[in-house]
Design goal:
- There is one protein chain.
- By secondary structure, this protein is of the alpha+beta class.
- The protein contains 7 helices and 24 strands.
- The strands form 8 sheets. A 6-stranded mixed β-sheet has the order 15-17-21-13-9-24. It has a 4-stranded antiparallel β-sheet with strand order 10-11-23-14, with no helix packed on it.
- The chain has one domain.
- It starts with 7 loop residues before the first helix and ends with a strand.
Length: 509
């Protein structure tokens, strides 16, 4: 592990500075109050002028229909179901904005939202039923509720991410540290490592609302030097394992390619993500792309036979500045504001399996790691990690790290490395792939494939707070981080990657 070269006292001052910036909303935007249902704006004063206090002590939690779908959605119903899922997300986003801006009470917002959802779910159910699909699971998913957001004052005395971090993509044991509540139930679990309060810890009282008034809050940040090493060690490869790697160099993305679509989750739906994505690989990824589009498009990858699309939500500084999307859906209209950070590097690496050789991925295989709605869904699929260079043995899921001087901000995405051998996608976009077991073996019925690991690094934001883009009601919580991938490598290149991994080589491009 890299030796610490910073002075703790200096880093303590940085921590105070970053939470003070949050209290001013990254330029004087908003302070979160503890009032769960909006009833209007209150006036608060802060150094440098008045700040508008928004009601964001709570958010809206709805059943995530997309993750509850099981089996195959009938082909003839897929367009209607995708449209319905997009409408459900729009309804929640609009309801949250109305609540947060004080345009209606919480009860009024929820009543209208639940009526809208019931109608949309009925239409989706009819479409699935007409196509011969199973639609019974939709009947009980219309009701949304208010979810309280824990407010912390002064030093955090809750547990941070420590101990053993489980990476259970499907119903794993990864627990949220801190006093953060989900659906009123405190998350504790197996991640020990109580945060130490001393120098470098969060010492500014109160909660703050970020530049747009919908997060992040000061207790979403933690001094990485105060986190105990917790990264799970990779299982030891046996004689049948595959120990090689294959790296595809695809750059860091271009601003002109960003959009707020998600072709995996919401095909054919503009602004289906409700937040902005960075893209590398394919230059044709939007809501209306299809497999043929990807094959015929260009790529940012050094090897032109890799036309895969790799994409993730952008990270923004909460610096009070506007980006080009400040007045657009997916951007400022939905609470995603501030200067977008361009990564220093996106390291795209495919790894092997500790217990077996890997097989080629099928072309157009779709994989999502992490959960964009984990703050309200719970942490079963929260699989993305935050860290700092030099501190990679300390990985956070539900906190943003404050990195010391000379250390870069890191996002680490370990994708699922096991495939069901049949499907390139599934109704909930998860069931066709799985994480390996603790010993590295794939679950029964799954085959080992090259495991994608994407590590994204950024220049240290310094004293300026930052936040990942997200759905408005997710409050920019770090636990909502996620990454998406569609394999569009040529058969020849995929076979090369498999050969490198299975023979223990370290290959590029």
């Amino acid at each position: 592990m890299r030796q610490q070269t910073h002075k703790r006292g200096r880093f303590k001052n940085k921590t105070v500075a970053i939470v003070a910036a949050l209290a001013l909303g990254g330029g004087g935007a908003a302070i979160i109050t503890a009032n769960a249902s909006a009833s209007g704006d209150n006036n608060n004063s802060a150094q440098g002028g008045a700040v508008s206090a928004k009601s964001a002590g709570g958010t809206i939690s709805c059943p995530d229909v997309s993750q509850k779908l099981s089996g195959d959605v009938p082909k003839g119903s897929q367009a209607q179901v995708a449209k319905g899922l997009g409408e459900l997300d729009n309804q929640v986003a609009t309801a949250y904005q109305q609540m947060n801006k004080g345009q209606a009470s919480g009860d009024e917002v929820l009543s209208k939202l639940n009526d809208q959802r019931q109608q949309t779910l009925s239409q989706m159910g009819q479409a699935m039923g007409q196509g011969g699909g199973e639609n019974s699971q939709l009947q009980s998913m219309s009701e949304c509720k208010m979810q309280q957001v824990a407010q912390q004052a002064g030093q955090q005395d809750g547990q941070q991410q420590g101990g053993e971090q489980q990476q259970g993509q499907q119903g794993g044991d990864q627990q949220q540290g801190g006093d953060q509540q989900q659906g009123g139930e405190q998350q504790g679990g197996d991640q020990g490592g109580q945060q130490q309060g001393g120098e470098g810890a969060n010492e500014v009282p109160g909660n703050a609302g970020g530049q747009a008034g919908n997060g992040p809050s000061q207790d979403d940040f933690v001094d990485i030097t105060q986190v105990q090493p917790n990264a799970e060690q990779a299982p030891q490869a046996n004689g049948n394992g595959s120990t090689g790697t294959f790296t595809s160099e695809c750059g860091v993305g271009e601003a002109g390619l960003r959009n707020s679509d998600n072709v995996i989750v919401a095909p054919g739906v503009s602004n289906g993500a409700h937040h902005m994505h960075d893209y590398v690989g394919s230059d044709k990824n939007d809501a209306f792309a299809n497999n043929q589009t990807f094959e015929q498009g260009g790529t940012s990858c050094a090897n032109q036979d890799d036309k895969s699309t790799y994409y993730w939500p952008v990270v923004r500084l909460q610096d009070g500045k506007d980006e080009a999307d400040a007045n657009e859906l997916g951007g400022g209209q939905e609470g995603n504001v501030g200067t977008i950070l361009t990564p220093k590097e996106s390291k795209i690496e495919f790894k092997g399996n500790a217990q077996s050789k890997v097989e080629a991925m099928p072309k157009f295989l779709r994989i999502i790691t992490g959960d964009a709605k984990a703050f309200t869904n719970g942490d079963a699929n929260a699989n993305a990690a935050w860290s700092c260079s030099g501190f990679e043995d300390r990985q956070l899921t539900d906190k943003y790290p404050l990195c010391p001087e000379g250390s870069d901000l890191l996002r680490i995405f370990d994708f699922q490395g096991c495939w069901d051998g049949q499907n390139i996608d599934s109704a909930n976009h998860r069931d066709h792939v799985a994480n390996a077991n603790d010993d590295g073996s794939c679950p029964q019925g799954f085959k080992a494939i090259p495991q994608l690991v994407n590590t994204i690094s950024y220049e240290n934001p310094g004293d300026t707070p930052f936040a990942v883009d997200g759905f408005p009601e997710q409050l920019h919580k770090p636990i909502t981080d996620h990454d998406d991938f569609i394999n569009v490598m040529s058969e020849e290149l995929m076979n090369k990657a498999v050969d490198c991994i299975n023979s223990g080589q370290q290959c590029k491009n």
